Amino acid sequence: MVHLPDEAQIKFQFPRKLQTICLALIVAGLVLIALQVFLPWHADHGGHGEHGGGHAEEHGAHGWNPRLFYSLHLALLVILPLTVGGIFFVAVNHLAGTMWNVTIRRVAETYWWYLPVAFVLMAIILLGGGMDTIFALWTHAPADDPLIPKKAWWLIPGVFEARNLIAVLVWALFGFLFWKQSTAQDGDGKIARTRLMAKLGGGFLVIFGLTWSMSAFDLTMSMYPHWFSTIWAVYIFAGLALTFYASMVLWVYFLKGRGYYGESVNENHLHDLGKFLRGHTIFWAYIAISQYMLIWYGHIPEETVWYQYRVKGGWYFITVALAFVRFVLPFFLLLKREKVRDLNYMMRISILIIFGQVLDMYWATYPILAHGDFIPFSWQELGPLMFVGGSFVLIVGKMLERNALIPKKDPRLEQCLHFHQ
Predict the structure, then answer these.
(1) Is 407 in contact with 90 (CB distance < 8 Å)?
(2) For 183-187, which contacts have Cβ atoms below 8 Å and span 24 or more sequence positions?
(3) Cα–Cα distance between 371 and 309 in angstroms, integer?
(4) Of 220, 268, 354, 404, which residue is the least packed, with the fewest Cβ within 10 Å?
């Protein structure tokens, strides 16, 4: 018979040592970011590609260090899906009325607290030098470009920045409402709050489908506006799901290791997280292969050039590595039932999957930086990733201290405590 754990097992205290590690990562990340300001990067190549010289030469006239903004953008594309993924998870499960995840849901509810930091990071990119560097292929397109005018109704400077920043605020509003209703229910136990969160879940999913698609097209596809893909938003969503579920496994690993949750989170809950990881691994591969095959079969120059960059030189090895890290290894490593129910084993797989998100977004964005020339991953990319990683764990950890780790009066809690499969 499983009961609600003692108060000590559901009242989180953020370890001082981990807080120190997070602060060290934040400081080190900021130092590496600052170094890019004083040590600007320049591409070492002769210049080629359909637009002539590399981005470094193009952007030098605007006074920006392109790799600085690319590295910040890479960090945003890793942390934003993770944060929004928490809200998506909460919304889906409230709408569906699921019970298996109640005891771990509070962690996902707390993810929204990082969105203000993501908002500031996005604002720095979009309102700083990002429009002249990351999105320069359309903001500084030649006047005789045959394709950009056809997308002009969508790629409008000012509107572009505003709609993406507003989307983050909308996500944050829903995240706050879910978190507020859930934590308030810990006190009064009103079932009406559960009904309200189900309605909020339905509304969020509609808005999420539209805004996330918009964000995916804007933040990545418009970096190369000559490219077309109607399923790119779904591809980016697959990364969101994988990153989120992997992060949840890591939080469960950490909290269980510190003595929290007791028997209220067991191998059955972990098994479900593992099934979602395996399912979305297959989903990512399906979307990636479908996109590639459709573009290969269509053989339209505007579409094939995007892959042309990624199947030559150093990028070819990244493409092959991505297939293994994102699909081959996780798929086979997540097949055995007994392994998926092993927390130590799942922790290692989850680290691999989060690394896969970094590799995926690096592969999706960096070939554009120097028109196909290989840009090795280096300290420039490490700095922003250290900053967002350290600040994310610090903020979520501090916010978890404010309430119980488990929604104590959720009407489906009893079912969750006795969940078996």
Answers:
(1) no
(2) 183/109, 183/402, 183/403, 185/407, 185/409, 185/410, 186/403, 186/404, 186/407, 186/408, 186/409, 187/409
(3) 7
(4) 268
Q: Which amino acid type is present at position 191?
A: I
Burial class (CB in 10 A: 0-12, 13-18, 19+), 188: exposed
Q: Which two tokens stand for residue 235?
A: 């591809």
What tens digit of pLDDT does each residue of 327-372 get? 999 999 999 999 999 999 999 999 999 999 999 999 999 998 988 8
Q: 147 or 202: which carries more pLDDT confidence? A: 202
- The pTM of this model reads 0.93
What's the CA gap between 229 and 305, in Å, rounded? 12
Residue 248, pLDDT > 60, answer: yes
Query: What is the chain's alpha carbon radius of gyration, rounded to the nearest angstrom?
Result: 22
Q: Per-residue pLDDT averaged across 112-141, rounded? A: 94
Q: What are 40-87's pLDDT values in tens digits? A: 887 665 444 444 334 444 444 355 789 999 999 999 999 999 999 999
Distance, in Å, from the CA atom of 370 to the CA atom of 58, rounded to the nearest integer, reads 10
Residue with tokens 């964005």: 365
Nearest to 410 by CA among 95, 92, 186: 186
Cα separation, 71 vs 35, in Å, equals: 12
**C-alpha dist (Å) from residue 128 to 62, 118, 384:** 12, 15, 16
Confidence (pLDDT) at 57: 41
Candidates 415, 410, 404; CA nearest to 5 is 404
**Are 70 and 63 contacting, i.e. CB atoms less than 8 angstroms apart?**
no
**CA neighbor of 305 nearest in space, from 294, 291, 295, 318:** 295
